[in-house]
Amino acid sequence: MNWEAIAAIGEMVGAVGVIATLGFLAFQVRQNSSLLKNNTRQLEQNHQVAIAQAMATSDRQSDPMLIVAQSNELSRIFYKGLANYVELDPESKMRFSLAMGPIIAGVSVKFMEQIKLEIADADYLPDQANFLMKFLDTVGGRQWWKTNMQMYPKPFVQMVEDVLNKREVKNKAV
To answer: Do both 80 and 101 map to the same domain?
Structure first.
């Protein structure tokens, strides 16, 4: 056997070694990519769960109706405010507004989102209007609305005014 044959065999063994190494590296890269994808998915899921939990906790803690329901004093103020807002003392007016404002604002935000997305439908508006009217179609609710409606977007104010006016006409007819 001459040196050229040994060199050729060495080159062949080296080439096979390089190919085997490249195959092994490709396998490891694929395996690592798969692990990274799985970890990323898991992190995204954990993040979504954490956000959902934070929102649920936040919503429960900041729900104005829940806050009113949990406080006897605030419940009395809210009840009196719905009956006659203008007769409340200044502190009670402020507390009533701090409860009433977010309730109305929540509906306003949803209403404006529907308008912006052009998906406001005939079914949505009456449901929201009926919910609002539980608060606004009272003596005190109307008084509060008249003094605070400027805080809300014009399309929302127009919708509320239209519903209140229709209810007023119905009540006069009855």
So the answer is: yes
Start-to-end C-alpha separation, the chain:
118
How far apart (Å, rounded) are the C-alpha atoms in residues 24 and 56? 48
d(CA 109, CA 115): 10
The pLDDT score that the predictor gives to residue 51 is 62
Q: Render 50-111 in DSSP notation, one character per residue.
A: HHHHHHHHHHHHH-HHHHHHH-HHHHHHHHHHHH-GGGS-HHHHHHHHHHHHHHHHHHHHHH
Rounded to whole angstroms, the Cα distance separating 170 from 96 reads 28
The whole-model pTM stands at 0.58
Residues 94 and 156 placed together within one structural domain of the fold:
yes
